[in-house]
Amino acid sequence: MSEDLQQLTERQLYALRGRLAVGVHDPQLTLRGALHQDMRRCSNRRCRCQSGELHGPYTYLSLYGEGKSRTLYVPQAVAEIAAEHVESTRQGEALMLEISQVNLELLRRRALR
Ligand SMILES: [Zn+2]
To answer: Would you say the pTM of this structure is higher than 0.90?
Structure first.
């Protein structure tokens, strides 16, 4: 990535930065984490899950970057919207990383503004 950026003119770098920024998610939708689904066994010894027919799937959100990682249960009613938020956050943060690379190149050229 950064090697390609060195080939671009300043004008192209500003244009690239603008295109990348358009795709960055609405900050209000930010939800950092990773969703995953899991099957569970309950504590009832006579339940069918004890013979392998597990409950679920249930959705969980793994959170990190707060020191230690945590996992939250995501109710089915909001699982879809949570997935949209997580995905747009992931894409937005990837774009912001690219924007930062562009700005670093501009900084190297003393053309950052
Ligand atoms: Zn059970």
So the answer is: no
The CA 62 to ligand 1 mean position distance, Å, reads 23
State in Å: Cα 55 to ligand 1 middle.
Answer: 6
> Band of the pLDDT at 2, cuts 50, 70, 90?
low
Q: Residue 3 C-alpha to ligand 1 middle, in angstroms?
A: 55
The dihedral over CA atoms of 97, 101, 102, 104, expressed in degrees to the nearest 10, equals: 130
Q: Please measure the distance between the N-terminal and C-terminal CA atoms of the chain and give it in whole angstroms.
A: 21
Query: How many CB atoms lie under 10 A from the CB of residue 107?
Result: 11
37 Cα–ligand 1 center, Å:
17
Residue 68 pLDDT = 78
Q: What is the pLDDT of residue 3?
A: 65
